[in-house]
Amino acid sequence: MDKTRTESTIGCLDFSIDLNLKYPKYFALADRAIDIHTDVFSYLHKKSAKMDDIGCEKRIYAWQSFKATECLISLSKLVDSGLVGDGTTICRKLLEQAITVLYIAQKPIPRAKMFSSHQALNRPFFMQQALKSNYISESEKSRISNMLQLALDQLSEARDEFGIPETEKTVPPKYRYDWSGRKLESMAEEVGLGWEYFKLYRLFSQEVHSGNSNQMRYLDVEKAQFCPKYGIGEALGALFFGIKWYLSILEVFGKSVGFHSAEIMTIRNELESLENAPEFSSDELLFTMED
Q: Considering the entire predicted model, what is its pTM?
């Protein structure tokens, strides 16, 4: 499993670890979770349900479910290859999506309306700001102008659906970047994911922003070598939590459309049984470099 490398050249590593071969249980659980997503939409198809016929909150859950499925597929492939740093950035996205979906599900109607109204108002606002920018070429501004008209048409439809008054031309500054008017940490605490936010979201953020504290994962000062220092436990842990948060999104979406899956609880129980597995807490490095 350990990919020992003797080269000291940056970029020499062969990211073809195939963790799936040694720890197939984690990857099989990810695949089974994704199968539930397929089952939900098969269920809706049999009911001849259309997105226009279901409530605003359900459309949000469906959209987030699709996004989360893409994330989990990507996360699984990245972890399997040993690309743990990029995997944790995907995992961070899954946590944020889970927080958003669970937060809306607490009070579906008003919060879904707030979420959708924010999207409808914010999109044309930022396009209008782009048209004022000196950094945007005239050809780009022409394309943005066409997109802006579509965004304004969609805003008009949203005003009818969500009752957004004509006096609201844009999102108030307080809500411009936080649709709920609350910080993500506060939302996480309300939905019972405060620990995950505090311990993992912030940790994964170092990968997203390439913070200075993250460089020690790559730099061996004594040997003047570069090598990613990620453990097997960290790799499998990213997939573990990614599956956990993904299931939360699927559960909310499924229940909202009348779909119930015993498989969700089965996978959760199997995940819990892996929490104390020796490989989950292993600090064995995926990559090493020798002189």
A: 0.83
